């Protein structure tokens, strides 16, 4: 019988809302136009998440990359197909990604307590409540 452990961490709200799902951690910056809209699978060659889907996940990553057109379009096509992430946790927000996420109403936070990054692993269950500025990690 496994015992779950719930940990809460303070964060900073960039966009409003809440979302929850399994964690998907990337060591690489993400350009959402390099995902397959039908599946949410990252198709960028040699990317840390290549072959993995962002759909219904809480994606944790350093930052965005690409112009406003490609970021916005990539997220828009994911949204139209129902394959967007449930929430985003970013370490280095940029105006291009933030503007795209604001328009598409995807919860986005940054400045999560450092202890979070020492505890989180892929497939941990995460709840992001940007409005309350808290990230909850459920392990086990």
Mean pLDDT over the residues: 95
Q: Give the low-confidence spans.
A: none
Strand content: 25-35%
> What about the largest sheet?
8 strands, mixed
Q: How helical, in percent, are the residues?
A: 10-25%
CATH class term: Alpha Beta
CATH H-level superfamily title: Phosphohistidine domain
Given the C-alpha coordinates, what overall shape results? globular
Q: What would you say the CATH architecture is?
A: 3-Layer(bba) Sandwich
Beta strands, count: 8
Report the total helices: 3
Q: Identify the strand order in the major beta sheet.
A: 1-8-7-3-4-5-6-2
Order of helices and strands: EEEEHEHEHEE
The N- and C-terminal alpha carbons lie at a distance of 10 Å
Number of domains: 1
Could you walk me through the main structural features you see in this protein, from its secondary elements to its overall organization?
This protein is an alpha/beta fold. It has one domain: 3-Layer(bba) Sandwich (Glucose Oxidase, domain 1), CATH 3.50.30. It is built from three helices and eight strands, in the order E-E-E-E-H-E-H-E-H-E-E. It has helices at residues 68-81, 95-104, 114-119, and strands spanning 5-10, 12-15, 18-25, 57-61, 87-90, 108-110, 125-129, 134-139. It has an eight-stranded mixed beta sheet with strand order 1-8-7-3-4-5-6-2. Strand 7 (125-129) and strand 8 (134-139) form a beta hairpin. Helix 1 (68-81) runs parallel beside helix 2 (95-104). The longest helix has 14 residues, at 68-81. It is globular and about 40 Å long. The N and C termini lie close together (10 Å). The model has no long low-confidence stretch (mean pLDDT 95).
């Amino acid at each position: 019988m496994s015992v779950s452990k719930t940990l809460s961490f303070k964060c900073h709200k960039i966009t409003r809302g809440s979302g929850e799902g399994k964690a998907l951690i990337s060591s690489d910056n993400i350009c959402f136009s390099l995902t397959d809209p039908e599946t949410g699978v990252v198709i960028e060659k040699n990317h840390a998440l290549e072959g993995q889907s962002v759909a219904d996940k809480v994606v944790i990553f350093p930052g965005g990359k690409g112009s406003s057109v490609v970021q916005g379009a990539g997220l828009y096509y994911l949204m139209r197909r129902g394959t967007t992430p449930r929430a985003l946790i970013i370490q280095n927000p940029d105006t291009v990604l933030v503007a795209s996420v604001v328009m598409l109403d995807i919860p986005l936070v940054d400045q999560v307590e450092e202890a979070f990054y020492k505890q989180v692993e892929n497939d941990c269950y995460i709840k992001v409540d940007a409005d309350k500025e808290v990230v909850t990690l459920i392990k086990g």
